[in-house]
Amino acid sequence: MVLETEKKQKKYKVIGTRPIRPDGLDKVTGRARFGADIDLPGMLHGAILRSPHAHAHIVRIDTSKAAALPGVKAVVTNADFPHVPAEELSLGEGAVNLVHLRQNVLAEDKVLYHGHAVAAVAATSAHIATEALRLIDVTYELLEPVLDVRDAMKQGSPILHADLRTRDMGKDGDIPSNIASHLHFELGDADHAFGEADVVIEREFTTRMVHQGYIEPHNATVSWDEDDHLTIWMSTQGAFNVRDQMARLLRLPVHNVRVVPMEIGGGFGGKISVYLPPVGAILSHKTGRPVKLVMNRTEVLEATGPTSGSYIKLKMGATKDGRLIAARGELAYEAGAFPGSPVGAGCMTMLGPYDIANATIDGYDVVVNKPRVAAYRAPGAPISAFACESVVDELAEQLGIDPLQFRLQNASKEGTRQLRGTTFPPIGNVAMIKAALASDHYNAPLEGPNRGRGVANGFWFNAGMQSSLNASVNGDGTVSLIEGNTDIGGTRASIAMQLAETLGIPMEAVRPTVVDTDSVGYNAVTGGSRITFASGWAAYECGMDIRRLMCARAAAIWDLGEDDVEYVDGVIRARKDAAKKFTFAELAGRINSTGAPIIGNASVSPQTVGGAFALHIADVEVDPETGKVQVLRYTAFQDPGTAIHPAYVEGQMQGGASQGIGWALNEEYYYNADGTLANASFLDYRMPTTLDLPMIDAVMVETPNPGHPYGVRGVGEVPIVPPLATIANAVYRATGVRFRDLPISPRRVLKETQGLE
Amino acid sequence: MQAIAYQSAKSIDEAVSVLRQWGERARVLSGGTDLIAQLREGRRHDVEVVLDIKSIPEARELRYSPGQGLYLGAAVPCYRIYEDAAIARAYPALADSAALIGGIQIQSRAAIGGNLCNASPAADAIPSLIALGATCEIAGPNGRRTLPVEQFCIGPGRSALEQNEFLVALRLPSPAAQSGSCFLRFIPRNEMDIAVANAAVALTLNPAKDRITAARVAIGAVAPTPLLVPEAAAALIGAPLTEATLERAAEAARAAARPITDMRGSIAQRRHLARVLTRRAIESAIQRAKES
Among A145, A144, A122, which Cα is nearest to A133's? Predict the structure, then answer.
């Protein structure tokens, strides 16, 4: 449901409609080609040996028996990689030290988590490759693992990296530590403000490591040619980013690496950092044949980046008239085996929904013996929002103020100063909260025992980054759009729609194609909720480029000055002579008989992302005897700026809410005491199934972003920010117990409500 | 998963002779929903041949008559149970189990007999078979034998089948008039899960429908094998249908549970659930008996 659509419908012809996606037929018929569908002549199959231990020195790797197995063509270890400098490499969402990336794709002298890749084999069949893994003999010297973020921060904890020092305000510490960095943010004077608060609440929270749970496992097929050109077919959120990672890791010129992005079965941030391509590359280099690697689900869960488990201590203070005035927070996020948790984003987004003048927030990025974390949908924000929205809820309750009303009266708005120093541009937070307050859901009575209703707010920055695309006008008035963004959430459609709107032609007249890294200008990752915003902006610029060229061509045909021709609603016409006009298709038909082909080009790097807010309402029922939480009704409100394709915005809102509900209720990495992961399957890593979720109603409350030609704000990430606290607040009202440790599994509910350990 | 030979037996004798030939290296395949997953995940390295019993007539037969009871071939897939109205009405606990093992696709392959032979402590069909008094028909080199189903599982993944034996069928007695049964399991989600605990109850009411004249109670996922709980049945038989009776029986189930703590549940949680599920299954079985 879109609120405020009426105005927009008058304003736009294509934007705000719900056309069928250009890639839809291929996907529902099975024609679409995903990474694992690649099959090349002479192709070998790779397999990876993984550590059964959470923390150990690698004393020796004997690959001789594996190499001797008939059908095995190569066995590689970390020693087969070239040396790389310890430089930071941006991943678009997050960054990684090159040495750590190299050590993560194949362990060097230590294994740092259960599932850490140790060696790899290429063989003539997948079965032989798997069989060969059993013949690789690795001698380990076991070390004590450290699994919890608070344990890892303690003096005397097992140390993962002897050379890691705590970076604190730009300076490195002088003793080895698991704390990779300490961040500090200050706004106003929190100490003073707490003195003026009438109500102060301080609470501690923990969350567990959780995985994105995309359907398609990681894959890569790599061909290293005789002339040192590398081609990689894979599903990735960022083909250009993979190209850069590979060039840097393998010390090749960038133009030697071509990445062909295949269709992708979900990513949510988890398909940015490389795992398989570097291994495939050295296997292909050694064998002179293409090598294909595909993970199974266990490998995905054990060894690809989930998001952090965490510990948070948060204190907030309010005046008795219900004004939030102070916050002090301490956030410690697990980075997994190598530095790089999203704790910074957690710190900076936590207070985003509020106008709160005084805050001091400290963040700690901490390594533990678990897989290196990767981005996951609004990385870091759901974790800190869980803490903040729980404390805010409790403050509202103590003050006797309706929880939504309390959020409304403290809501951030245009001009509100944020913790990171900047002030908000026009944002839709207030309008969204008002819509929730007035909604049927919030005003419907919730009757029956063991039921409760919860609300929570959430903020995500959104990102801009770089986008390039081009479009050719065809003789029949259609347009071929060439872009370089992996289409995860319907972006072929949302980009094509913005080009069609700009050109005043039907969306169906634009055919978008996603191409490889040699075939279009640079594009940053499909991440940060940026594609419909930034590539949509590029589509607008590209459309304007085409409009100028079309006007110039018409002017030439009519022998008029370019200024005498205008482009209105897909019609090119002379300003002063109503008889002189071409439809887009008419002029397109004359392009090649009147001059050069018409191609529009655009490359952009927009910064005015606008910021996104989401507010969720949940009704739950808790079975007091089993502790099971059933979500009865769920409504997600969000400001998409302008919803380009409302159905895909709704899909993002529902998807984010679903993942967040899973995070709140049952998902967790369950580790045995020895650091082995016990539940690396979708059977025991419990994401919600369709039977676990009600219909998630999506309400778009549009406050157009003045920083975008069509008012777009990114929509993909923010809907996962509120659900954790929304569910926890609802369960509180159903049970009378505040749950501050996730997940709120039946086991935990029984423990907290009945004392059953 | 390595190259594995496949053999399909057409008769019980042929199956036994294949088993004699291959011994420990053979595994019997019916629906394969457990076995194939185990082979793919490398959990069984010793298997060299799978022996498909789906072409053995005795293993595929499903036959019910009120006088004779139920003959359930070991390879009969779940869906045939809940889609047969007479069987589902006579053995509602078994229909409950058949309908919640896996999804539709799994139910079209997976067999109750296979669920039993996999001998998981958390198996969703075994408590129902125990409560309904099923008997196993086993074939082997020394001929045929029968075994009460509650004696079939002897440990996690381990059954009472001797070397070169296999399960041919299960027989369930006809329920008496005014009987009802129910199977319940607890999982954190609503699908796609292995039981944290489960329970099955089968009982018979007197003609006045105010007393229980016969009962069997079984619980699962709370011990190395699914358990028959005679103490729970004893609490029910002859007693009036009161709150206290039901609580005593449920408490007996709780006391019988000997669970472990693992990623799926804790000791305290599982014991508690054994009580809750038994209590709820009794209530449902009584309701069904009254409506029968």
Answer: A122
All residues of chain A having their beta carbon less than 8 Å from the beta carbon of residue B266 are: 747, 756-757
Q: The CATH number of the domain where B152 resides is what?
A: 3.30.465.10
Using the Cβ of B190 and the Cβ atoms of chain A, whether some distance falls under 8 Å is answered with yes
Report the complex ipTM: 0.94
What proportion of chain B, given as a percentage, has pLDDT over 90?
92
- pLDDT value, residue A169: 84
Are the beta carbons of A689 and B262 separated by less than 8 Å?
no
Instruction: Provide the shortest C-alpha distance from residue A157 to chain B (in Å).
Output: 25
Residue A132: closest CA among A71, A86, A206, A202 = A71
Residues B93 and B22 occupy one common structural domain: no
**Residue B32's domain spans which residues?**
5-52
C-alpha closest to that of B137 among B194, B61, B36: B61
Quick one: pLDDT at residue B181? 98
Q: Is B268 on the interface with A (CB under 8 A)?
A: yes
Residue B24 belongs to domain with CATH number: 3.30.43.10
Quick check: B276 and A625 CB within 8 A?
yes
Q: What's the number of domains chain B is made of?
A: 3
Q: How confident is the model at residue A1 (pLDDT cuts 50, 70, 90)?
A: low
Closest-CA residue to A268 (of A376, A160, A172, A192): A376
The second-level CATH assignment, the architecture, of A2-32+464-604 is 2-Layer Sandwich (3.30)
Residue B212: which of B242, B182, B254 has the closest Cα?
B242
| Same domain (yes/no): B44, B62 | no
Does domain A423-460+611-754 fall under CATH 2.60.40.3600? My reply is no
Yes or no, beta carbons of B273 and A626 under 8 Å apart: yes
CA distance A369 to chain B (A): 19
- Are residues A524 and A465 in contact, defined by beta-carbon separation less than 8 angstroms? yes
Q: Tell whether B64 is within 8 A of chain A (Cβ).
A: no
Q: Give the pLDDT of residue A414.
A: 97
**DSSP assigned state of A534:** I
Q: Which residue ranges make up each domain of chain A?
A: 2-32+464-604, 423-460+611-754
Which residues of B fall within a CB distance of 8 Å from A666? 188-189
Q: Considering B120, B145, B172, which residue would you say is the last residue of a domain?
A: B172
**pLDDT tens digits for A418-434?**
998 899 999 999 999 99
Residues B46-68, mean pLDDT to the nearest whole number: 96
Backbone angles phi, psi at A100, to 5 degrees: -65, -40
Tokens of A6: 């009426």
Domain shared by B167 and B215, yes or no: no
